[in-house]
Amino acid sequence: MDVADYLALRFLIAAVALIAIHPPAISKLSRLDRGRGVALGIMYGVAQLVQTEGLRHTSASVSGFVTGMYVVFTPLLAAVILRHKIGKWAWVAVVLATVGLGVLSLRGFSMGTGELLTLASAGLYALHIIGLGAWSTPGNAFGLSALQMVTITVVCAVGAIPGGFSLPSGTGDWIAVIYMALIAGAVALIVQTWAQAHLTPTRAAIAMTMEPVFASAFAVLFGTESVTGRMLIGGALVMSAMYLVELAPRRKFEAEVQHLGQ
């Protein structure tokens, strides 16, 4: 499938599933929350398209590292946009996580069109993390997730219009798309939205750098890759960043970004 077609179908299935589970979820959102949900969905949908276009012009490993730079952009943008001071332990954790991502992902690096596009997507992901951290609450998490899914679907569908729209060709492909829509899409976004009602954006961004660590672990577990020194060192650095934000004095992070509510 064309990438935009795949993304539009994936998020459409996720949106339909969330609305079917709780139809009034979006209508129960306040007007302000609906506006915020649309804004978050646009940021995430555009980030998906830009990241995917960037991947056409660079390697997967470099794309993974550059995308992971949202761990750097998140505290920087949070400090600028929300004017809150970021604690020194958070910066140490950001550096550890960034180096760990580099060890896990990089095998040569050059800055071209693909890298610049991917860097732009990382900035959008950082803005999405900041927005979720500031606007999500346990009460609006489901409705906000459903509205984001609908908006992401529209954004990706617009991206799919130029080349026409195609569907998966076989049962196996449909199963893969449905899995990505429901588990890696709907469930993941609900969990992230709910969790960010309880976490500051920088803490969330650092936690999300565990993604390549989990990817490496599953690749080894399912026999597609073998354990390497890069995996062990890079994974250890990322996990060290995780432990640092959990073990450092909590007050260093609690005042970092407030939830804005209504």
Q: What report would you give on this structure?
A:
InterPro entries: Diverse_Substrate_Transporter, EamA_dom, EmrE-like. Keywords: Cell membrane, Membrane, Transmembrane, Transmembrane helix. It is found in: Cell membrane. It is a multi-pass membrane protein. Helix content is 74%, strand content 0%. It has helices spanning 3-21, 31-55, 60-67, 70-81, 88-105, 113-135, 141-160, 171-195, 201-208, 210-221, 229-247, 251-254. Helix 1 runs antiparallel to helix 7, helix 3 packs parallel to helix 6 and helix 5 (88-105) runs antiparallel to helix 11. The longest helix has 25 residues, at 31-55. Mean pLDDT is 86; it is low at 251-259.
List strands and helices in order, with pairings.
Blueprint: H1 3-21, H2 31-55, H3 60-67, H4 70-81, H5 88-105, H6 113-135, H7 141-160, H8 171-195, H9 201-208, H10 210-221, H11 229-247, H12 251-254
The termini sit apart by 41 Å
Instruction: Give a quick account of the main beta sheet: strands, pairing sense, barrel closure.
Output: none
Whole-number mean pLDDT: 86
Kindly name the structural category: mainly alpha
Task: Quickly list its features.
single chain; 262 residues; mainly alpha; 74% helix
Task: Explain briefly what this protein structure is.
This protein has 262 residues and is mainly α.
